[in-house]
Amino acid sequence: MGHEGREVLAGGARLYEAARAVAGDHARAVEAVRSALKPIHDALVKRELDAIPVARLQDVTEGRLRLGSVDKSGLSTVGQVLEAGPYRLRQIPGVGQRTVDQMLAAARRLSEAVHETVAVHIDVDRPEPATTALVEALHVLVEAGPAARRTVDEAVALTKRLGPLLTEAKPAAGRFRMLLAGREKRARALTALAEIRSLTAEAEAAGLPESLAQTSVDLLRGTSSDIAAWVDFELRSAEYYGLLAEISGRQPDAAAAEGFLPDEVAERVRTQQLAEEHRRVSLRGYQAFGARFVLAQRKVILGDEMGLGKTIQAIAVLAHLAAEGQSHFMVVCPASVLVNWTREIEARSTLRVMVLHGPDRHEAFADWKGRGGVAVTTFDALRGFPQPGGGEVGLLVVDEAHCVKNPKAKRSQAVAGWAEHCERALFMTGTPMENRVVEFRNLVGMLHRGIADSLGEGDAPAGSVAFRKAVAPVYLRRNQVDVLTELPSLQQSDEWEQLSASDEEAYREAVRAGNFMAMRRAAYARPKGSAKLDRLREIVREAGENGQKTVVFSNFKDVLGVVRDELAPDTALFGPLTGSVPAARRQQLVDDFAAASGPAVLLAQIQAAGVGLNMQAASVVIICEPQIKPTIEHQAVGRAHRMGQVRPVRVYRLLATGGVDERLVKMLAAKTRLFDAYARRSAVAEATPDAVDVSDTELARRIVEEEQARLGVTEEHARPGVVEERPGVEEESPLQPSE
């Protein structure tokens, strides 16, 4: 017993110390964030208190305070009153001890309220030592990722179990100790020893010692440089802000995060477990609740406002069900977001994804049936697949579910059939469907006929308590203003679209002609079948449904004309704002756009509108094609993302797969990282932006030649040239052969 006991105890002790070390490393990393956050937060609080006039103290005390003599003494703000303290306040003529006590009590109440409500926003364009320290501290935890967080949780749980067991099992370390211990202690020691042996064996089988070692390395590594931390923050700002909210304790109101669900529904959701092993992304609190809601309620509509991460919540549900042993999943979406879904699933999870689209979709469907994974298909393609058997599909996800609100449409009937044969279904839409009860009822009817029938046929009062209670088991919606306590200042997403047949034909013609500029705008050359235009319309529609204004940027005047024709007459349109519009008229267009009541769209040529105009009325930005220079996009986005913007800005860059857009993005990736790391924080770069941009002519030549080779088309002209892009230029001319 002595030697064997010592071996088991030694192994348990090593595991215990490794787990304690990881928990300690994580605690220190969290404390580093808190320490970096405190001076920034305190400074913001002081600034707020210094801006509150001392007269507000009367509001807090319901007018009982007389503050005339205080104001005359030079103490004009609440911050100054707190800084003065009781001794100085007592020296003011006519101010007694009772007034001092009341004044300070009221000032402290305001201070506490400001502490609770003030939000820290990290300004990437003006990095200061304090914010740099905060970003670097957060970077350590963000870089360690969700896997580190899971390991830390396991380490904490393990130390709680192992600590008492190691103490209890000490007598088993030697025969002499066992002889001296009483019968009861010996029995407890042997029991504890057996549990330690079992725990260490389980940990080793799960690879926990290696995970603990790796997590310690990740948490102690630090950042390579402050520039690296800032660049990563720009790329993953939502993760940084989510972590900041969690550590600072500034979580959103629980009722808002839970969509104001009735207590009985919310409690059932809270108790739902959520597995993490197949997921590669951390969830914010409201996102975790949304995923649990889907799991607990089985067939639901997730109606979160645009920008809250419905896709990530769906992936979290898929990952959980995969961990439970489910093998087959189906995602149905518009063709315009097909590529986005596949990329998001690949990036955010370990799940296998298959696209069921195009001429080979039936072969792909058969492969998915045999091997499993997440199948991603379109509404039209779904109609051609046989409905699943009971229990065969773990989850049906329907994105942009408002597209199937008409029960007479064939796509709606196909989705309804699949939903009926799946035990779990998730419909997703950012459109506030509850405002159209008839359409909303049709969607609910695909999931829960009884609840749909209870809503009635007419336009019932959607905001009523009875309505909210009726739809609670099937519908969850949260708004940005309610749940993002630390709003990301900028959210950017690349919208990859698969070219339609007509798009492809126009693109091939441009490639054959060696016309670089025509290649860049080929996706809009034939509007009737344009995949990019379809996605643009969806974004504008959803923004409008949520009361948001949108600015659409393109390098090309004719592309803006196509967009204008496609959006009219159903949209309040302004522009296009082009290089030929006089400067005074440009500002008037922007002012009219800002003054418009309700949703509106401003069309703007990216170079003409990228300098000197403030477009903070827009909270949605669409860039129709990737730009040749990183500076152009940054300047254009900066027109909306600037001081005075009261809502987070969502930027969509429309990109087409397999052609000039993809090559542009890849070729410019390294230059963009350099630009983000250095140029955006350099006064010199402001004056000479071309210093970090690639050669237009060389880039165009390389892309055209590579695309001609890829597509096997014959060049009709000599080698391609490029027209220099200049601010204020009315329109780029199609590329012609350069001499």
TrEMBL record:
Basic and acidic residues bias (residue ranges): 710-729
A GO term for molecular function: helicase activity
Matching InterPro entries: Helicase_ATP-bd, Helicase_C-like, P-loop_NTPase, SNF2-like_sf, SNF2/RAD54-like_C, SNF2_N
CDD domains linked: DEXHc_Snf, SF2_C_SNF
SUPFAM superfamilies linked to this entry: P-loop containing nucleoside triphosphate hydrolases
Limits of the Helicase C-terminal domain: 535-700
Helicase ATP-binding domain ranges (all copies): 291-450
Residue ranges of the region described as Disordered: 710-739
Protein's UniProt keywords contain ATP-binding: yes
SMART domains: DEXDc, HELICc
Keywords, sorted A to Z: ATP-binding, Helicase, Hydrolase, Nucleotide-binding
Name of the protein: Superfamily II DNA or RNA helicase
Native source organism of the sequence: Streptomyces murinus
Biological classification of the source: Bacteria, Bacillati, Actinomycetota, Actinomycetes, Kitasatosporales
